[in-house]
Amino acid sequence: MTATMTPTRRRSHLTKGQLPKYAPWAVLGVALVLGAALINLIGFNAFGWGIFTAVLFTVGLVAWSGAVEGARKAKDKLATCLVVGSFLIAVLPLVSVIWTALVNGIPGLLTPGFLGTSMNGVTGAADNRAVENGTKVLGGVYHALIGTVQITAVATIISVPVGLLTSVYLVEYGNDRPLAKAITFFVDVMTGIPSIVAGLFAAAFFFLVMGPGTKTGAVAAVALSVLMIPVVVRSSEEMLKIVPNELREAAYALGVRKWRTILKVVIPTAISGIASGVTLAIARVIGETAPILVTAGFATAINNNVFGGWMASLPTFIYTQILNPTSPSNPGPSDQRAWGAALVLIILVMLLNLIARLIASIFAPKKGR
Amino acid sequence: MSKRIDVKDLNVYYGNFLAVEGVNINIEAKSVTAFIGPSGCGKSTFLRTLNRMHEVIPGAYAKGEVLLDGADIYGAGVDPVTVRSNIGMVFQRPNPFPTMSIRDNVLAGVKLNNKRISKGEADALVEKSLQGANLWNEVKDRLDKPGSGLSGGQQQRLCIARAIAVEPAVLLMDEPCSALDPISTLAVEDLINELKDSYTVVIVTHNMQQAARVSDKTAFFNIAGTGKPGKLIEFAETSTIFNNPSQKATEDYVSGRFG
User: Which of A37, A170, B59, B69 is deepest in the core (most CB within 10 A)?
Assistant: First the structure.
């Protein structure tokens, strides 16, 4: 390893006592082989192989480093191994979820008409025929997609003004008054409300106002907004707080009124953060199942009216397809549709996250000269 | 346009804490007045009471009279917003609005108040204000670029342009050069000398050479100790303060023998 480049520049004493660059790879190779040998003693499986390899790698690298480089470097290597290990443990389930959804969902998603048809008129007999003759699975998620988009849109329309105005009050006018403290407390409490309770609240509320058994998309939207508002308040509050006070003072010093300062200086400065907070709040409620089941019911046909009639949504669609397959004797087609809908839901949430990033970068204060 | 400021028996409070006590001072129109003194002696606090920026801080208030050409800005029914559009302010750290272009920053005082202004008038105002702040030649080709892309000294002059675009009678400057390099400082000091022709300028500074260079009159503030209120010790012609002060504390401070 002592690569002498010139006679005068031998390996310097400054770089003495270091592991060679290939050390981690060498240890990894040995750990992989030893791990495979060990796991074969109790019966081979890939998961166990990974665990054994990780443990052997950590022990090997730390021991080698301790012998050559000393205790400080060995501790550093140990910490690095633990951090990387935790990262892998956190990422594995995520990758696994996406992989499973892709593998199971793609057949459903790629069936022609899956995104463009509803479940209206799709019977158990049709599913049985599809399985027996190997023909394409009928039915799709169009009605559920419409329902999810509409219910979430209405929930957003309700939550954003309420949430944003609340956070403006808390940051700009609250001044730690008792009212502001109470609002902060109740927003925290609202964050912890179980989603089914929010659904029951909305159902009971409309029961009182509109009459018993009112189940529409709007009721579901109210239930979702109960869940969304605290998230929007919290995220916009944080965003408004980090707007430098100097900007407010600069506006005041120009003779600008407080409400104009908030509207034209504070909110525009924080808008990218607020927008991405709102998008994340949408992503948080778009997958809610329980509150929608008790408020919007379940429909198999297309319903474009949020204010009348039962409505389907992607989560409730998945739930009913799995729990009550259209054809009890042949649940295969229902499974396929459910996984397809799950994939659509994941793609929707990912799109929302991308949109949040996009909004954040579009509205961010401009840099450059 | 410029107006004089007369302060009578002004006490400034943060909640129950008396920060500045019993200030009496007469600031002439079309002059440069410098406030000097050790850190924490209340000169910035006092400066902020001159355009009612002080009360933006929760719990802060002032008692006494501040007369702007004879009219008390703390009088009953006086709107702080009107006061502030008459008395502009430049802060210690340059604070251009990050969401706005250079042009919009200059027009901020007009646009944020939703005043109607034609494009021609706006262009004229932008050029006049930037000329007035000695910045026009440096930025005239990139008025639509964000103001945060300028250097620190340019940003500070942009803030001065923004402040004079609303045509105030008085311009308050709170250590405007403390975050700038010597060349930018020189540019701002030259600017202050020019601004004197049309504005009343009040400047807080920690730099005594700067006070000596730019100001006509100088006020020395001091504090007896931590927790005690700051007081105006001496107010006189700048040459008197630096060469022949009447108070021992002033002499100790300007000669560097303080404390």
Answer: A170
